[in-house]
Amino acid sequence: MTKLADHLSIGQVAERSGVPHTALRFYEDRGLIFSERSAGNQRRYSRTVLRRIAFIRAAQRVGLSLEEVSEALATLPRDHAPTKADWARLSRNWQDELDARIDALRRLRDRLTGCVGCGCLSLRACGLYNQDDQMSKFGPGARLLKPATEGGA
Questions:
Q1: Lowest mean pLDDT among 21-25, 94-98, 116-120, 133-137
Q2: Is 152 domain-assigned?
């Protein structure tokens, strides 16, 4: 066990990182960050936790889920402060997924612009609202459901 006197309290980590206490506890519950307990059972964090929190927040900022962040951090030793080289290595793994998200958003933006231009918002023809609707050729409504019997629901 390391000297806890050199560690930070949860309040100090919250203040220095700008992350609320509740989020720090949540990150700890998820295994993203780690603390030790003092003799009085208070959380004490190694200073490396500040770097891990910065890593988590940066990854979230680019749209990664906490699950993805957790998988990345699991490749590092738990008391390791992620370095620039760690970020470069791990972020390469996310490049394809982020590119796919960007492409999907561009396609959505382009369809939205076309939709605003026509103004129809037709449920039958709108490529944005009713994209790839194969059943539309059979008419409106829930076509695959059996018709209700007379007098019943």
A1: 116-120
A2: no
